[in-house]
Amino acid sequence: MTSPEFANGETRGKIITCKAAVAYGPGEPFVIEQIHVHPPQNMEVRIKILYSSICHTDVSGWKGENEAQRAFPRIFGHEASGVVESVGKGVSEIKEGDIVVPIFNGECGECCYCKCEKSNMCERFGVNPMRKVMESDGRSRFSTIHGKPIFHFMNTSTFTEYTVVDSACVVNLHHVQTLNIKKLTLLSCGVPTGVGAAWNIANVHSGSSVAVFGLGAVGLAVAEGARASGASKIIGVDINPDKFIKAQALGVTDFINPREAEKPVYERIREMTNGGVDFSFECAGLSDVLRDAFLSTHEGWGLTVVLGIHTSPRLLPIHPMELFDGRRIVGSVFGGFKGRSQLPHFATKCGRGVVKLDDFITHELPFEEVNKAFDLLISGKSLRCLLHF
């Protein structure tokens, strides 16, 4: 893959002035303005962002739905692709000009979590929506032109022409020749989160039955992963009937609109599947939906995978004795993928057509129209809207 031409090293070690979408308060419109992006420090990478898309996690953080993570001004965004502008001291696996994607759930490769084959967590660089500064020195790499710090988000902050990311949160995809950089953007969050939940966490197998609650990009990625694994029945559950057309293209065989159901959704699913599905995936982030997903699985072996972001303080809507029926429930972060070591292989599979990426990109807009892109996602009219710089 050929790297876009830029800078030719002239900006290395210097403060870069560029455009960014800055949020100054919960739910306030983004302001496109000039900011300063400081050079990468030890084990950090400065990236020129070429494409960035929007995830519901960005919406949740921007709205300030979780009071504990409110920190403004802030640069949101965590799904993107770009080219390395410069690297800090100690960075050896990534070099200037490499095509990369930032990831919110990093992999340092050295901690006990990274060395454990059963986990894709990282002790130092795992997903942490509360973190708002760089890990190395507790300072931001962004500032207004007047010198006021601007906070980071989800280890990445991609709503800016340039960002600084810990090297543990950067995946080198420079040698993936079968995908263009636009499609690589999807590998930064949503698609591996959903597909990986089906492959790595649930281990969906040929002939199995699946229910997906919430048909946003992550839910449809689950469906696509289940389709690729040979699932015989994939039931999509969503209150927006318009999503079924797109869902069919990504493997969903049946559709349930809870608002039109005459009985609880889990009862409908049990009737459709002779007792319940083998696997259910909760992608909506709602406690009541989680209960439906759990009860829709088959007694004895049913597994529910939780992917939705639950901002409510409500606890699990499940009585402990209900677990004695043989149903299980587990959470999933980034689809169980270890980002730096396993995502390149996943990208290669996508390039071979194992996973269809084209259907996830529904809109493209210039970066300056980020507020419109948010409106499209919130209204349910887009899956992934790519912002190009």
Keywords:
2 domains, six-stranded parallel sheet, seven-stranded mixed sheet, 389 residues, 22% strand, 17 strands, Rossmann fold, alpha/beta
What does this molecule look like?
This protein is globular. The protein has 2 domains: 205 residues, Alpha-Beta Complex (Quinone Oxidoreductase, Chain A, domain 1), CATH 3.90.180; 140 residues, NAD(P)-binding Rossmann-like Domain (Rossmann fold), CATH 3.40.50.720. The chain is of the alpha/beta class and 389 residues long. 50% of the residues are buried. The strands form 3 sheets. Strands 3, 4, 5, 8, 9, 16 and 17 form a 7-stranded mixed sheet that branches. The two termini are 19 Å apart. The longest helix is centred in the last third of the chain and has 13 residues.
In short:
The protein has 389 residues and is α/β, with parallel strands linked by helices. Helix content is 22%, strand content 22%.
**Spatial separation of the terminal alpha carbons:** 19 Å
Proper CATH architecture of the largest domain: Alpha-Beta Complex
Helix-strand pattern, N to C?
EEEHEEHEEEEHHEHEHEHEHEEHEHE
- The CATH superfamily title of the largest domain: Medium-chain alcohol dehydrogenases, catalytic domain
Binned strand content: 15-25%
Based on secondary structure, the structural category is alpha/beta
Low-confidence stretches: none
How does the SSE layout of this entry go?
Layout: E1 16-22, E2 31-37, E3 44-53, H1 56-63, E4 79-87, E5 99-102, H2 112-115, E6 142-144, E7 149-150, E8 162-166, E9 170-172, H3 181-184, H4 190-201, E10 209-213, H5 217-228, E11 233-237, H6 243-249, E12 254-256, H7 265-272, E13 279-282, H8 287-295, E14 303-306, E15 328-331, H9 339-351, E16 361-366, H10 370-378, E17 384-388
Parallel strand pairs: 10-11, 10-13, 11-12, 13-14, 14-15, 16-17
Antiparallel strand pairs: 1-2, 2-6, 3-4, 3-8, 3-17, 4-5, 5-9, 6-7
